[in-house]
């Protein structure tokens, strides 16, 4: 079997998969009480204090710097990869069908990277979707940073104005060498962005733009480097109100009502 470790980003106690490849990680743990059997993201080398802005990326940073494995992945306590095409109705069935070691091994025989199925927006490109739903200034500043630090990625970044789909959620499983390459590139950009944007001008929801921007940067990095990958279905452990989510999306696009919370 391959040496795979997948961190499950969580901020509270919640049911976890039984497969040993999954490691619950308490993101934003600094200053918080210990959650039993959860790895804290404020131990060893970490950026736990940035969690209100970087979201699950503080868990990714901890795994990148401290976790020893041949493959490292990131999922969420309410969202997992699954090898099943069945739509399950309850959490028990869903937890019984999260991606397991054996299937992950099989997929990784032919690729170094597992990504979610593309999320498609259809009626608007990725840049406009970001602009309509949240504040665009941090994303524009990100472009400037990329132009200065790694201009070879600008062409792919600018495709955000054309592309209508992306591998979202900051979910992936990668060979450790790829994680090293990606995280070195990603956090160099984001930590520079932190120096340039006054986070205090945003409310708690919109201040989490580092996590949102990183969702868009993943494909920029993968496509620029011509990396191959395998897409795997993502499963929400709790039911999503798609009607409400769709209505909120349309209000953002057509009347400029920005998102106020996550779905």
Describe it for me?
The chain has helices at residues 51-54, 57-66, 91-95, 101-108, 126-133, 137-149, 154-158, 176-196, 209-224, 242-255; strands at residues 4-10, 22-26, 39-40, 71-76, 79-82, 113-116, 119-120, 165-166, 172-175, 230-236. With 263 residues, it is α/β, with parallel strands linked by helices. The protein has a single domain, classed as Spore Coat Polysaccharide Biosynthesis Protein SpsA, Chain A (Alpha-Beta Complex). Helix 6 (137-149) crosses helix 8 (176-196). The protein is globular, with a radius of gyration of 18 Å. The chain starts with a strand and ends in an 8-residue tail after the last helix. 35% of the residues are buried. The mean pLDDT is 93.
Uncertain runs are none
Query: On the 0-100 scale, what is the average pLDDT?
Result: 93
Measured distance between first and last alpha carbons: 36 Å
CATH class: Alpha Beta
Instruction: Output the CATH topology.
Output: Spore Coat Polysaccharide Biosynthesis Protein SpsA, Chain A
- Strand portion, in percent? 15-25%
Tally of extended strands?
Answer: 10
Q: What coarse outline follows from CA principal-axis ratios?
A: globular
Q: Biggest β-sheet, characterized?
A: 8 strands, mixed
- Provide the spatial order of strands within the biggest beta sheet: 3-2-1-4-9-6-10-5
Please tell me how large the radius of gyration is. 18 Å
Task: Indicate the structural class.
Answer: alpha/beta
Number of continuous helical runs:
10
CATH architecture: Alpha-Beta Complex
**Helix-strand topology string:** EEEHHEEHHEEHHHEEHHEH
User: Could you say how many structural domains there are in total?
Assistant: 1
């Amino acid at each position: 079997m391959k040496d795979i470790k997948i961190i499950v980003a969580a901020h509270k106690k919640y049911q976890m998969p039984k497969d040993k490849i999954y490691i619950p990680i308490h993101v934003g743990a600094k200053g918080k009480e210990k959650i039993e059997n959860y790895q804290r993201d404020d131990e060893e080398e970490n950026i736990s204090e940035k969690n209100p802005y970087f979201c699950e990326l503080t868990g990714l940073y901890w795994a990148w710097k401290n976790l020893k494995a041949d493959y490292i992945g990131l999922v969420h306590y309410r969202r997992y990869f699954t090898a099943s095409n069945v739509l399950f109705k309850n959490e028990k069935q869903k937890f019984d069908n999260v991606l397991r070691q054996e299937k992950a091994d099989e997929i990784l025989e032919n690729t170094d990277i597992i990504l979610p199925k593309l999320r498609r927006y259809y009626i608007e490109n990725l840049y406009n979707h970001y602009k309509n739903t949240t504040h665009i200034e941090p994303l524009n500043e990100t472009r400037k940073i990329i132009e200065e630090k790694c201009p070879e990625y600008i062409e792919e970044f600018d495709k955000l104005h054309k592309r209508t789909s992306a591998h979202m959620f900051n979910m992936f499983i990668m060979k450790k060498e790829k994680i090293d390459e990606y995280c070195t590139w990603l956090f160099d950009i984001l930590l520079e962005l932190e120096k340039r944007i006054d986070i205090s001008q945003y409310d708690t929801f919109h201040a989490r733009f580092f996590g949102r921007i990183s969702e868009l940067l993943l494909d920029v990095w993968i496509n620029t480097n011509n990396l191959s990958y395998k897409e795997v279905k993502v499963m929400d452990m709790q039911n999503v109100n798609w009607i409400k989510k769709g209505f909120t999306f349309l209000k953002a696009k057509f009347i400029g009502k920005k998102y106020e919370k996550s779905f």
